[in-house]
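FORM 7B: Structural annotation worksheet

SECTION A. Query
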Amino acid sequence: MLKYVVDSNFFIQAHRATYPLDVALNFWVKIRDLAQRGILISIDKVKDELYDRNDDLENWCKNNLPRDFFHPTEPVLQEYQMVVNWAISRNNHYLPGAINEFLSADEADAFLIAFSLADPQNRCIVTQEVSAPLGKNQIKIPDCCNALHVTHFNTIQMFRNLRETF
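SECTION B. Predicted structure
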């Protein structure tokens, strides 16, 4: 079964802009259902990004996501090295700050890609980031995914793939 590994912006943008917790209740019911069924998962680094705000979204996650929703990234250090090597190999394109930010131990993006790269037949990334191959100031998840052959979707594409509605 394909697992959809969600980025922190999946939750943050939904909560702040598209599907606020107090308005789009069915969206959040669907997210809880998909998470409980093991279709939606994420990683510890995303948890760290979500759990640093002490807001309604953090409370929702704590109260609605299964305990095993956030997977550890320690087992994917070999794949993380592949992501690091790719980012460094692009130093003639990306500015040093973009590479440093992407590879920061506090940032989830590179670890998210590594986690999916560890099992590419069964894991894909869900992110609201949009490819920007000409950009130099920030490495976008879709651009690294494309280079490393990791499947990625945005939220609506994920729902369409799953044939889920809310």
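SECTION C. Observations
Strands lie at 3-6, 40-43, 70-71, 123-126, 152-153. The first helix runs from residue 8 to 18.

SECTION D. Sign-off
Analyst initials: ____
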